[in-house]
Design brief:
With 132 residues, the protein is mostly helical. The protein has one domain (4-131). Helices cover 61% and strands 0% of the residues. It contains nine helices and no strands. It is globular, with a radius of gyration of 15 Å. The chain starts with a helix and ends with a helix. It comes from Streptomyces sp. NBC_01393. This is Leucine rich repeat variant.
Length: 132
């Protein structure tokens, strides 16, 4: 029987996309974050992780890691953007994820800039403006 520590070790170092996709359905937020930090995690697993929820702290960190992931394609990044929008509407502050999304050329500037209309502080809008 595998333990949470075994799942974490696999999520951190595994290269097999089948194993990584299976781990994306783990109940452990620390496994989700390890997958989001593993450069071998495939886009399909990243997309699944974009819908994972646990707590404000864990969710915001996960969204930032997903937005920064080198294998995150436009589909994954749009899903992350939508999850970030939900968090902003709930009054949370996933600003690190917003800034990471603003750095991604796969997303149109307006797609990210629209998040500035959802956030109370104008940090988001200001961060997105230089892309023009």
């Amino acid at each position: 029987m595998s333990t949470p520590a075994d799942h974490l070790a696999l999520a951190s170092a595994e290269k097999d996309s089948t194993v990584l996709r299976r781990l994306a359905h783990s109940p452990y937020p620390f496994v989700w974050q390890a997958l989001a930090a593993n450069p071998h995690t495939p886009p399909s697993a990243l997309l699944d992780l974009s819908a994972a929820r646990d707590s404000s702290w864990n969710d915001n960190r996960l969204l930032r890691l997903l937005a920064e992931h080198p294998a995150a394609d436009a589909t994954v990044l749009r899903a992350v953007r939508d999850a970030v929008a939900e968090k902003l509407e709930e009054g949370e502050r996933p600003f690190a994820a917003v800034l990471a999304l603003a750095d991604r050329p796969e997303l149109e500037a307006e797609t990210v800039r629209s998040l500035g209309n959802l956030a109370g502080p104008r940090l988001v809008y200001a961060a997105c403006s230089p892309r023009d």
